[in-house]
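can u do me a favor
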């Protein structure tokens, strides 16, 4: 009788942050159990056990290299060998390089993210500046806002020592499940919690103060809090005088946001704004926990977050115990992530439109306008895309991008599952899940973990980095100048290279299933700015960003965290307020979904097989829509049908729809040019729409 063996590995949906025990019998994955018993933002795959096997053996898994056999977009493919696939990639990428130049090829990293440094190395070896990722619509705008102020890496809150915590657009119970026990511990410890969220979520219910603002008005709220802090002399005068640039202009500007005025803008009562400001500034040390994208998914997103992040320096809570720390715990260095620089010898995608993105560098190009560049080569000649995990639903008007991809000279996508993004490809490659590969992970506290291969790859799927290495090798055979020493050493050597700065070896890490702490360990420190200046042009925290000021005349940027209200610019976008009276907010987290990836899991996708259009009961009565009725949501960019769902968590006047559904994607409602002028991020969470009933027999698509 065969026995079930347990293999220590990582969750294929959650990623390296979630260690799991994989149960394997007869070479097949049976189930997984979370080592921490705490699933990340994945719909709870780890905790659900057998769901992992449904994921790995899903009927939509890509199992073999598949070559297009019909017209582009027709969806007809035929199986080929890996050898033929690699030659096809090398020949076509080199043909495009010779004919149009290296910059005409985009190397794109979607989800998962673990192979990004290797793919960036491949792009650099090829000679293109156009290494792009899904962070063109996720996270990088928040990082850009942070760097415009501090110049350094983002500082997370020191939860162990904080006395007050602001959760700014971070619904932990749905978006960061493992942190919910921590949240409860904070409450038990007496930490004051201020939650900033347009909806009264479970997280908000447990907070001491809930600032329930209108979506997209975060900047006005933060500036108003700053006005109270400055007026009542609650700010850290010594820190500001020594380490802040542009304070006088900032102080003058925030006077425009008295709490009474901010109440009219944000919908948050003036007294609550004052209370939150006094609590954050007066009950220190205090930290701010923020999330990747809700605030920056507005057309004034970068400036809104700059206003939020300024509060940290204003109150002296930067890089102190209990505040936002540069290094809250010990760490051990590693190679690759954050160490590989993007080739910038030529103009990259987005560089003309969003120059600050490149002056506050994130080592990737901004590809929000990828469809435009493909369809109009006068803008920028994009002829080929080598993608891993490209999901067209990450863009506004995703079907437009899908059609644009079909126009490329050459398009290859490596994927776990066959998605609509694959239909227009010339070649689709099968990638492994984390259960089917080995990997070195860097973790918190300076620890490293080796993720074992629980099962052999399904079909002919391969490790993403091994695919990258072989593509490089095939191109180098044809063009010897295309080279990268690190990628050419093989995958075992690559993992060894990642570990080298830590002082650990791969063999000893493999022998420690619970992981190891790096030998070269650096202990946490505070007030690093006393020894090293901020990495900004002024060497200080820049309340007035000198980099943004460079583009005041050419792009209209302001160095101050100026607030701009999207509701005042309806006419700028050709939108009539009477025609589209409601605010459209897309993508607020749901516990059973992870962007568009889990709709293919029938037991999860079936919970919401057509989009739920969440509206306040007052709006339902106002517009004659009953709970559970078929409705159509129409914006200036398109329409989607779904089912009305009464929900009083949000304010009246706001419609909430989750994104990514194959039966009605909310991102089709967002205009392709409705973007933040600094970051290029779409205004996914602050557009305009109307709602109306439809006939019962109409399709929900």
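np, heres the sequence
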């Amino acid at each position: 009788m065969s026995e079930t063996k347990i293999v220590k590995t990582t969750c294929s949906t959650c990623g390296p942050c979630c260690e799991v025990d994989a149960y394997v019998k007869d070479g097949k994955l049976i189930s997984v159990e979370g080592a921490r018993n705490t699933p990340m933002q994945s719909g709870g795959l780890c905790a659900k056990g057998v769901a992992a096997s449904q994921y790995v053996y899903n009927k939509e898994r890509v199992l073999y290299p598949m070559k297009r056999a019909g017209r582009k977009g027709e969806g007809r493919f035929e199986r080929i060998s890996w050898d033929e696939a690699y030659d096809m990639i090398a020949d076509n990428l080199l043909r495009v390089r010779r004919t149009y130049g290296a910059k005409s090829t985009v190397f794109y990293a979607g989800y998962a993210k673990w192979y990004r440094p290797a793919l960036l190395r491949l792009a650099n070896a090829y000679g293109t500046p156009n290494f792009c990722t899904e962070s063109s619509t996720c996270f990088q705008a928040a990082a850009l806002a942070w760097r415009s102020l501090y110049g350094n890496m983002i500082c997370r809150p020191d939860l162990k020592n904080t006395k007050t915590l602001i959760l700014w657009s971070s619904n932990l119970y749905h978006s960061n499940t493992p942190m919910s026990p921590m949240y409860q511990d904070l409450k038990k410890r007496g930490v004051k919690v201020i939650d900033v969220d347009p909806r009264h979520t479970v997280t908000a219910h447990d907070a001491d103060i809930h600032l329930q603002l209108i979506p997209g008005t975060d900047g006005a709220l933060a500036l108003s809090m700053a006005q109270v802090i400055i007026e009542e002399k609650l700010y850290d005068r010594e820190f500001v005088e020594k380490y802040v640039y542009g304070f006088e202009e900032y102080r003058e500007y925030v006077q425009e946001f008295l709490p009474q005025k901010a109440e009219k803008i944000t919908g948050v009562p003036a007294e609550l704004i004052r209370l939150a400001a006094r609590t954050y500034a007066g009950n220190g040390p205090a930290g701010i926990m923020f999330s990747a994208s809700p605030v920056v998914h507005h057309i004034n997103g970068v400036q809104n977050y700059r206003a939020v992040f300024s509060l940290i320096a204003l109150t002296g809570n930067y890089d102190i115990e209990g505040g936002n720390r540069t290094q809250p715990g010990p760490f051990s260095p590693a190679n690759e992530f954050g160490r590989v620089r993007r080739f910038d010898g030529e103009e990259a995608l987005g560089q003309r439109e969003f120059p600050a993105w490149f002056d506050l560098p994130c080592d990737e190009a901004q590809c929000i306008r990828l469809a435009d560049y493909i369809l109009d080569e006068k803008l920028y000649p994009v002829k080929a895309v080598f993608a891993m995990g490209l999901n067209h639903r990450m863009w506004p008007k995703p079907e437009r991008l899908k059609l644009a991809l079909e126009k490329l000279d050459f398009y290859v996508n490596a994927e776990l599952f066959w998605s609509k993004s694959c239909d227009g490809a010339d070649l689709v490659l099968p990638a492994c899940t984390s259960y089917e590969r080995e990997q070195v992970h860097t973790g918190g506290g300076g620890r490293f973990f080796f993720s074992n291969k629980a099962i052999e790859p399904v079909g002919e799927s391969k490790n993403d980095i091994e695919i990258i290495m072989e593509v490089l090798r095939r191109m180098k055979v044809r063009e010897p100048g295309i080279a990268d020493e690190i990628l050419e050493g093989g995958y075992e050597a690559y993992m060894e290279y990642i570990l080298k700065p830590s002082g650990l070896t791969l063999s000893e890490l493999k022998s420690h299933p619970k992981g190891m702490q790096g030998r070269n360990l650096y202990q946490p420190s505070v007030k690093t700015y006393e020894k090293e200046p901020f990495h900004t042009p002024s060497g200080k925290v820049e309340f007035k960003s000198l980099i943004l000021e460079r583009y005041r005349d050419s792009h209209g940027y302001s160095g101050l965290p100026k607030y701009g209200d999207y509701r005042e610019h309806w006419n700028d976008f050709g939108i009539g307020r009477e025609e589209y009276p409601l605010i459209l907010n897309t993508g607020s987290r749901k516990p059973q979904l992870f962007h568009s990836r889990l709709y293919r899991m029938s037991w999860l996708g079936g919970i919401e097989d057509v989009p739920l259009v969440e509206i306040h009961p007052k709006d339902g009565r106002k517009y004659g829509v009953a709970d559970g009725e078929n409705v159509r949501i129409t914006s200036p960019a398109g329409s989607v049908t779904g089912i009305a769902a009464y929900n009083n968590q949000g304010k009246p006047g706001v419609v909430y729809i989750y994104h990514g559904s194959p039966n009605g994607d909310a991102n089709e409602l967002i205009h392709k040019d409705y973007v933040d002028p600094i970051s290029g991020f779409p205004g996914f969470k602050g557009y305009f729409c109307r709602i109306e009933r439809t006939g019962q027999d109409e399709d929900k698509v």
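Residues 82-100 form the longest helix (19 residues). hope that helps!!
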